[in-house]
Design brief:
By secondary structure, this protein is mainly alpha-helical. It has 10 helices and 2 strands. The protein has 2 domains: 37 residues, no CATH class; 211 residues, Orthogonal Bundle (MetI-like fold), CATH 1.10.3720.10.
Amino acid sequence: MIFIMKDDQKGNSRLSPFVKKLLATGFWLLLWQLAAMGLKQEILLASPAAVFHCLLELLPTGDFWHTVLFSFSRIILGFLLACLAGTLLATLSARFSPVRELISPLMSAVRSVPVASFIILVLLWVPSKSLSVVISFLMVTPVLYANVLTGAQGMDQELSEMAAVFRIPLSRRLRYLYLPQLMPFFRSACAAGLGLCWKAGVAAEVIGLPEGSIGERLYEAKIYLETPRLFAWTVVIILLSLLFEKLFLFLLDKGLSRLEKA
């Protein structure tokens, strides 16, 4: 079988990671279904079947895809800008200590301030349709900054000095010296930031209520007590976050692999 492996020593069957995840997901779905059946109050807890039926109703509509595109494009834009800004600031901070001393209090403040406070403050300065971009950017930038800075400060200085002595071109240093050492830190920061950007971005939309956003759909479902629709949009957010995370990290690993082989 594809998904079952045999233990060489004891002969006991061992499930593959895919099947383990599938079984764990099935367990929680079953528990959810039993809880919904026991409660018998769809307004409080919609069953998985009701949520799935609601999803089937949403998927064929143009409004659904327009809403998904609206939120997806803005939240991911904020994430990508955070990757750029966090990496650039971390590189400058590792190279110049005055920059690090100047940036450090700002990053600490951004990490400490509650997301809701940022959302309300930013609403005073930007239109609601751009709110999720700014909030995603603000929440993810400190994560990228801290991780990349840690990686940059832990780089092998002797190798850097040797590269300078032998006058190795900057492009070769980036490809063979700096990137291999920094990429694990950058990758872990991206993995953490991807989930954070969706949480913060959707929270910003729920408060700012930009027209045509997922946050607006969540708020409407809550106002009209459409619990299955509320759960359905929550499932959509989870799936979008997971799919983009897998795709982004896959492309990141592929790009680094090709760069190293070039």
